[in-house]
Structure formats: C-alpha cells, structure tokens
Amino acid sequence: LVVPALSKEEQDFLHKTVGQQCRALGGGVYHTVDGENRRVHLGNDWSALEVYGRGEFPLHKLSSIQLETVWTSFDATLVFEGESGGGNDEAPHQPLHFRFAQFDVRVRFILTAKVLRNLAKRLQHRATRKGPSQHSPSSMQRGAARRQQQQQQQD
User: Which end of the chain is more exposed for a tag (fewer CB within 10 A), N or C?
Assistant: First the structure.
C-alpha cells in the first residue's frame, strides 16, 4: 500500500488529535471494553494501555486492529501478541474488544493507538539495539511535550 505524504496541514491535525487523545488517556478515560465500562489509561511512559480489570497491554505488542460497524455501535478489536502484563511471547494473542457509540471517538482512539504502537515499536527496537542504559522510557513524553510547545508557539 502506497500512501502519499501528509501535507503540513494534515501533519498538524494529526499531531493535535493524537496529542489530545494522549492527554485524555494519560488521565484515564472510560470505554466499553469486553462488554463492560472500564477505565483505560495510558501508562506514564506512553508504552502501554492499562485496562482496569484486564491488565497492562504493551503497545509494541499490538499486532492488529479489526474494525466492525454494527447497527448500534462502532467496534474495534485490538489484538496483542503474548500475555497481558508483558512477558510470554508464546502465549496466545490477547484481544480487547472496544465498543464506541460515536464513529469519531473510535477513529481518534484507533488513530492514536496506531501512532503509539509505531512509536513504541521503534523505541523497543532502538532499546534492544543500544541496550537499556541508552534508552530513557520518558523519551516519548519529551517528544510529545516538545511538539505541544512548538504548537503553542505557532498559535
């Protein structure tokens, strides 16, 4: 799949949308997950989703996102490799079934999950190449803060 590069306006919109979602998830938001209203929280280092009652799901292990629309909701299934809580790559895949009442809420959540997954995979790869002493887990936060500061200076 070849996708044209994003324009400056589209990049700014993407940064703003993902930044807003990260801030909301950082404080914890409620979503319907596996049929129950659960608090979903983005971990302090932005590398994992914490779903209360289900555990922690490292974003670098997010292997697929499946979307479905039914009459009453907009659903998304996030499938993670290995066991929740990080550890056993031999364990079966762990699906999380999200249900959204509004289409735009699903789009923003999934877009943010995909961006964070890509970032987490790059950082995970970089950390394994350089070793743990060369990688700061807060680097994602510093990058987001830098982008937010640049955005505020432009406004």
Answer: N
